[in-house]
Every structure is written in C-alpha cells, then in structure tokens.
Amino acid sequence: LSVASLEDPVVMSKIRQNLREKHARHIADLRAYYDSEIQSLKQQLESSHSTAASEELRKINQSLADRCDQLDAALSEASARIKALENKNNLLEKQVADWRERFCAISDNSKGLQERLEETRASHKEKDNTISRLKSRLRELEEALEKAYKVSDNKNTRLQEENKMFQNLLGEYESLGKEHERVKDTLNTTENKLLDANTEISDLKRTILKLEAQLKQVEHENALKLRH
Predict the structure, then answer these.
(1) End-to-end CA distance of the chain
(2) What is the C-alpha separation between 39 and 17, in angstroms, rounded?
(3) pLDDT of 181-228, one tens digit each?
(4) Cellular component GO terms, alphabetically (predicted)?
(5) pTM
C-alpha cells in the first residue's frame, strides 16, 4: 500500500471491512466444515448401532470420540489463530493511526521547513542584491581612490615644493631671528648708554644751573660794583 492509500480513511475502512468479512467467512466455513463432519460422524454412529456388534461399536465410538476431540482441538486452534489475527489486525490499525499522525506531523514540519526555505531564499536574494550594490560602491570607491592617488601625487609634489620654500623661509627666519637678537643686544646696549647719557645730561644741567646762578650773582656783584 502506498502512503497516499494509508492516508485515505475510506481506503483503510474498506481494508478493515474486507478483513472482517474474510475472517467471518473463514470462521463460518470452519464451523460449517466441522458441523458437517460431526453430523457425518453422528450418522455413521447411528448407522453403526444398527449394523455392527457392540465391540465394533465401541471401537467406532472411541474412534469417533477421538475424532471429535481432534476436531475440537482444531476448532480451538483455529479460534485462537483467528483471535491472534484479530489482535494483529487491531495492532496494525493502531500502527496505521500512529503512522498517519506521524505523517501529518512530518507534513506540517515539511511545510514549516518549506516556508523557512522560501524565507531563506528571499533573504539570500536580498543579500545578493546588497552584495551587488556594495561591489558597485566598492568599484566607485576604488576609482575615486585612484583619482585621489593621482591628485595626492600632484599634491605631494606641491607639498615638497612648498616644504622647500618653507625650509628656505625657515632659514631666513632663523637668520632674521639671529639678526634680531643682535639688534636687540645692540639696542639694549644703546639704551644703557642712553640712560648713562641722560644721567650725565641731568648732571650737566644741574651744573649749568649752578654756574648760571653763580654767573648771575657775579653779574649782580659786578653791576653793584659798577654803580658804586
């Protein structure tokens, strides 16, 4: 039986119905057979009463009794076998139900996995698109970087020239700094000399004032002498 057939409850119901009908027919056939055998033996027993001697009848009865015992044992064995088949049938029905539940669970799990697979494919496709955009952006950045390198080379040349000019200016600045220090020292010296000169001038002015005062006094004395 295929899995699809096991899933179909109508098919399973028909299978169980066929098995029950088959078991019923088998039991009915067995009962009919044993009943006919017992009836035949009874008829033989009845006929033997009228035609045979008592010793022979006893043997026949014993044989018939043994035969009945055998038939009863066979009937019991057949009944036990039918019971075992019915139990096995019930067990198979339970297994089929279990397998159906497991199949349903696996189907649901498979649907979930299929949905997850679709989501993963969509996510992978989105990531591929993102990677493509990033690659395009990377190419653009590489081109921009190459242009920047070219510009940087030109800038490096200009920077070297400017650095050279700056070194020259720095040398001139250092020379001017040294010259400024010399001028500063000279200026300090000159300022000191100027202070000394101012001090000397102040002293000379005081001397001149004293001399002028003395001169005025002498002139006044001379004028007095002249008037006298």
Answers:
(1) 177
(2) 32
(3) 888 888 888 888 888 888 888 888 888 888 888 888 888 888 787 776
(4) centriole
(5) 0.32
Q: Give the total residue count for the chain.
A: 228
pLDDT in tens, 20-69: 788 788 888 888 888 888 788 777 777 765 555 567 767 777 887 788 78
Contacts of 179 (CB under 8 A, 6+ apart): none
The rounded distance, in Å, linking the Cα atoms of 62 and 67 is 8
Give the closest residue to 11 by CA, choosing from 22, 20, 1, 24: 1
Tokens of 148: 């920047």
Three-state secondary structure of the chain: CCHHHHHCHHHHHHHHHHHHHHHHHHHHHHHHHHHHHHHHHHHHHHHHHHHCCHHHHHHHHHHHHHHHHHHHHHHHHHHHHHHHHHHHHHHHHHHHHHHHHHHHHHHHHHHHHHHHHHHHHHHHHHHHHHHHHHHHHHHHHHHHHHHHHHHHHHHHHHHHHHHHHHHHHHHHHHHHHHHHHHHHHHHHHHHHHHHHHHHHHHHHHHHHHHHHHHHHHHHHHHHHHHHC
